[in-house]
Design a protein that fits this description.
Blueprint: H1 4-14, E1 21-27, E2 36-38, H2 41-48, E3 53-59, E4 62-67, E5 72-76, E6 81-85, E7 94-101, E8 114-118, E9 124-128, H3 130-137, H4 155-162, H5 169-173, H6 184-194, H7 207-226, H8 236-240, E10 270-274, E11 277-281
Parallel strand pairs: 2-9
Antiparallel strand pairs: 1-7, 3-4, 4-5, 5-9, 6-8, 7-8, 10-11
This protein binds a DNA duplex (16 and 16 nucleotides) through loops.
DNA sequence: CATATGTCCTGAGAGC
DNA sequence: TGCTCTCAGGACATAT
């Protein structure tokens, strides 16, 4: 579930840990199969013990902690993972804990540990070197495992990256190598906002339409971040954070099949399937070309 | 039983 | 023909 706005919300809530020092990293007792952590937890522990957290970043749908040795710890929530500093919804699905202390001779309250809580356990945690991180981001060439972040990408860069693809635009927006951060929910919302048919082929959209998609992308994602993301019917996000997001009340098409389109007020929202996943759109507001 | 938010891998097929 | 792009399907694990 977590897409860019939800992960950005997690990131912002982690900011109080900036400048704290790692005491230890550990898997937590969890009755389930352990999640993937690379390198092995003892190696990881040796590399980051006593290191200071100098940045709390986000890269697409990942939370990235940077240490003073320039290694980065990357949390990848996938379907149901949550990164938080505080109280987890339960202990049963708690997978990982990063214990912290304040710099100097700390009196006062010790900082909350960073926790990775994941109901399904499909999430990943990985410590990467600066070199590995460059490979992941493509070192500015745009050819890494992840494309530029959906909030940061320029109108021109989006157009240049997408214009030659023969894929349907909705499917392309889900490709993290093209741009990072958009998932199934926001892809439908962005294309509805832009008035573009999700089945349009990328290479048949005009430059003007791509500009519209870029603008809708910024608008929808920023609004969703302001609402601290969406909580879905599954409720994972809600359970994990005391104060869950409210953007689900702003959805105009996602999971609203057969309801009236809030933009035109006339047509009803349709659900179609693309690349084996649901897409929601308004046939009146989103016409091809 | 089908469905659900994400990612990774493989193999087959399309088309430049 | 050859290469690249694209997509379908399965896997992961769990709840509604």
């Amino acid at each position: 579930m977590p897409e860019l706005p939800e992960v950005e919300t997690m990131r912002r809530r982690l900011l109080p840990i900036l400048g704290t020092i790692v005491v230890s990293a550990a898997r937590t007792p969890c009755f389930r199969k352990p999640i993937s952590i690379r390198p092995r937890i003892d190696v990881l522990n040796r590399r980051i013990a006593n290191r200071t957290i100098v940045a709390v970043d986000r890269l697409g749908k990942r939370v990235v902690l940077r240490f003073d040795c320039d290694h980065r710890l990357i949390f990848e929530p996938r379907m149901t993972g949550i990164v938080l500093a505080g109280t987890p919804p339960n202990r049963e699905h708690l997978r990982f804990e990063l214990k912290l202390r304040q710099r100097g001779n700390s009196r006062g309250v010790p900082p909350c540990p960073v926790l990775f809580w994941d109901r399904r356990g499909l999430g990943r945690i990985e410590l990467v070197t600066p070199q590995q991180f460059e490979v992941m981001t493509g070192n500015g060439t745009g050819n890494g495992k992840l494309g530029p972040d959906a909030i940061a990408v320029s109108k021109e860069e989006l157009y240049q990256r997408a214009r030659t693809s023969r894929r349907e635009v909705k499917v392309a927006l889900l490709d993290q190598k093209l741009i990072a951060g958009i998932g199934n929910l926001y892809a439908s919302e962005i294309l509805h906002c832009a008035g573009v048919d999700p089945r349009s082929r990328c290479d048949r959209l005009t430059k003007r339409q791509w500009a519209g998609i870029h603008q809708a992308m910024q608008q929808v994602l920023e609004s969703a971040i302001a609402h601290e993301g969406s909580t879905l019917s599954d409720g994972t996000y809600q359970k994990a954070l005391d104060d869950p997001g409210s953007y689900q009340n702003q959805h105009r098409v996602y999971d609203r099949a057969e309801l009236h389109c809030p933009t035109c007020g006339k047509a009803s929202i349709r659900r179609i399937v693309q690349a084996q996943r649901s897409t929601f759109h308004c046939p009146r507001c989103q016409k091809k070309q």
